[in-house]
Amino acid sequence: MTFARQHLFSRRGFCLCCLGSAAFNASGGWLTPREVFAEARGIVSLIKDSAAVSPIVTHKLRNNISVLEGSGGNIAVLTGPDGKVLVDAGIGVSRPQITKALADLGADQVTHLINTHWHFDHADGNEWLHSVGAKIIAQANTRKHLSEIQRVEDWDYNFLPSPPGAIPSEIFATEHSLKLNGSTIGLKYYGPAHTDGDISVAFAEADILHTADTYWNGIYPFIDYSTGGSIDGMIQAADTNLAITSGNTIVIPGHGQPISNRFQLKEYRDMLVAIRENVATLKKQGRSLDEIVAAKPTAVYDAKWGQFVIDPGFFTKLVYEGV
Ligand SMILES: [Zn+2]
């Protein structure tokens, strides 16, 4: 699979997020999208190759909950006698590093895996985690996307149905609750936001919230319109995240620095709202997408948020698509 330059700027790129973090980890510095595409290789194999050599960094939070950074999205881990509970699976080729990181957290086997949504950089590790004993839990739309061929038009790429062991065996529509290792774990559907299957995962006693990819800490987010995401859904999810957190909550974002808080969440939400308004105003004036990108409706936010693979122009297009 090779990529024409315009694919990079198309609005439906499946997971430029994973590309960015993988490229960063592999090289020790930011690769620009152009450099990455100059590799002229398939994005999925690029991500896999990069993840295969990326280290996993473990951050201990509180109440036997940690977060693993370095294989796709941020992975939360709850440990204890009921077995380890993972929130997201990372990329399959990271298995050796993740196995070691998990072993360092204790000898209990993995018994539960929660998928926050269907994307490759959060669910590719499903198969091996299931093979070592994890029951996989997800929102119904996530199982649907993992079960079927998922065509991503702009990448000219078909994600094949996941192997049987990788398919979530327990699904729910809006809410689900687990009681494991002394923790009450609340799973809640956001409604369509980053995709149409995103869920939050809240550890009640520890006051820790994993936001899935509805929140990217310090970087413009990817929005997957090809499976039901939208800018307005992202803003709604950000409002939900603010409503269910306090100043004491530890917030785990889908991407970006893995330990965050409500203050940063609020900044992120305000950024989304302001850029949405700027883009909507220009679109209402009848300006074309190219004119809107040239008008730089994200300008005041770019220094802080635009330094990752979702650059200001690409993020403008993602917002334009939904207003
Ligand atoms: Zn995602």
Q: Would you write up a description of this structure?
A:
- Helices cover 37% and strands 20% of the residues.
- The protein is built from 13 helices and 16 strands.
- It has a seven-stranded mixed β-sheet. It has a five-stranded mixed β-sheet with strand order 10-11-12-13-15, with no helix packed on it. A two-stranded antiparallel ribbon has the order 7-8.
- Strand 2 and strand 3 form a beta hairpin.
- The longest helix is centred in the last third of the chain and has 23 residues, at 262-284.
- The two termini are 32 Å apart.
- Residues 1-31 and 34-41 have low confidence and may be disordered.
- Zinc ion binds next to loops.
Specify the oligomeric state.
single chain
Q: Could you tell me the mean pLDDT?
A: 87
Q: What is the strand arrangement across the widest sheet?
A: 1-2-3-4-5-6-9
Give the biggest beta sheet: 7 strands, mixed
Report the end-to-end length measured between terminal Cα atoms: 32 Å
Shape: globular
- The SSE string, one letter per element, is HHHHEEEEHEHHEHEEEEEEEEHEEHHHH
Unreliable stretches, pLDDT < 50, 5 or more residues? 1-31, 34-41
Strand content: 15-25%
Small-molecule components bound: zinc ion
Helical percentage: 25-40%
Alpha-beta content class: alpha/beta
Rg over C-alpha atoms, rounded to the nearest angstrom: 19 Å
Count of alpha and pi helical runs: 13
**What is the number of strand segments?**
16
